[in-house]
Design goal:
With 393 residues, the protein is mainly alpha-helical. 51% of the residues lie in helices and 6% in strands. The longest helix has 32 residues.
């Protein structure tokens, strides 16, 4: 049967079954590798080691072969690992992390604590069980490297991770972490400038102190913009019927703040089995009764959704073709009636000031009518904003 002929439920059930079969096959594969190495059968196929045999006779990559051989050898010491891998309690990645810490005396405790955890959670567990010393703060020049492109998906841009190298964030102990990234020369100068300005409170110029202070300020700003947080919160304005009054710019800050606090700043989508989406990034406010169909900005009509689930709901309500057309229009300003990217940015700025979209479109239309296309293309967004504001006020 073709996959396209399966219902959604059948396709998901089939995928779940295949994942289970894959775990079972992986456990059997590791057991086979152990036995092949014990019998030294790799020598019979003209390979000096089991890893070479996996690469040249079984077609595995070097990384694939190494990870499986290391897991197989560990499973030879602790056969229970194969059972846990087959049940999905441990993965190749988590087994690799446990390799250097497992002993006969701590096996039961460590594996039980690691069972069912993600790679990041196991790293945190190991940092607690076997803490490492802090790394020294340093700025070190590195050779020029090619930029890594970004992939754009429905859930938002996702950077392609490097194939090799240390992770950007790695726990050293239960409460200490190594942070690693490559900075531009401009960022290096900014960090050094911040070190100089903080000497009164950070005498040795510790980079961790500088970065933490900067991140505190950034989080405060972003929480104000994205979540409506403020040091002096006000209640949302309520009308005579007890409904939240809609502001010109849309959802009020007070309502936005209340929605994110109620939903725990996490996507609220749940599947048929009651599992909630774990996403805490690319979060958006979603109208249960869509605004385009007259839905209000009341607290009860709003919920937090990640971008992917917000788009899924929009496709269910309006149709996939309609949503895709709107996305294309958003990405191409000319399809929304704006002549240039600067006009598009000006429109976003005016909407952010509280002007209704219809008024913004009329104001920008008047600005566009006064200038030829070439002049508009070269015109700074600030100039377009000033002319549009003059029309609006």
């Amino acid at each position: 049967m073709k996959l396209t002929e399966l219902s959604d439920a059948q396709l998901l059930d089939s995928l779940k079954s295949l994942v289970g079969q894959g775990r079972s096959l992986l456990a059997r594969l590791l057991a086979h590798l152990v036995e092949v190495e014990e019998r030294r059968l790799h020598l019979d196929v003209a390979c000096p080691s089991i890893i070479q045999s996996c690469m040249h006779r079984l077609g595995m990559s070097e990384d694939e072969a190494c990870r499986r051989i290391h897991a197989a050898r560990l499973a030879h010491r602790f056969p229970d690992l194969l059972v846990r891998i087959e049940r999905g309690e441990l993965t190749l990645s988590t087994v690799g992390l446990l390799r250097d810490i497992l002993t006969e005396s701590n096996y039961a405790e460590v594996v039980e604590a690691a069972a069912g955890k993600t790679k990041a959670q196991v790293q945190a567990l190991l940092a607690k069980l076997s803490p490492k010393p802090d790394v020294p703060a340093a700025i070190i020049p590195v050779p020029m490297q090619a930029a890594i492109p970004a992939l754009v998906s429905a859930a938002g841009p996702t950077a392609v991770p490097a194939a090799t190298g240390a992770p950007q964030l790695a726990p050293l102990s239960e409460t200490r972490h190594r942070v690693q990234f490559t900075a531009s020369d401009e960022l290096r100068k900014k960090l050094e400038r911040a070190q100089d300005l903080m000497r009164h409170a950070n005498a040795d110029g510790d980079l961790a102190v500088v970065v933490e202070r900067a991140v505190d300020l950034l989080i405060e700003k972003l929480e104000k913009q994205r979540l409506g947080k403020t040091s002096r919160p006000r209640e949302a304005p309520v009308g005579s019927a007890g409904r939240v009054v809609r502001e010109a710019a849309g959802v009020s800050r007070a309502t936005r703040r209340a929605v994110f606090e109620r939903d725990g700043a996490r996507c609220t989508f749940t599947d048929a089995e009651g599992h909630r989406c774990p996403a805490t990034t690319w979060l958006e406010l979603d109208h249960i009764d869509p605004r385009a169909r007259g839905g209000s900005d009341d607290l009860a009509n709003l919920r937090v959704r990640c971008r992917a689930h917000n788009q899924l709901y929009a496709e269910q309500v309006f149709g996939k073709e309609h949503v895709e057309r709107k996305i294309r229009e958003r990405r191409d300003p000319s399809r929304r009636g704006y002549a240039t990217e600067s006009c598009e940015r000006a429109a976003s700025g005016l909407a952010g000031m509280g002007f209704r979209r219809a008024k913004v479109r009329r104001a920008l239309g008047a600005v566009i009518a006064c200038h030829p296309r070439d002049a508009l293309t070269a015109m700074p967004v600030q100039t377009i904003l000033r002319e549009a504001l003059a029309t609006l006020t």
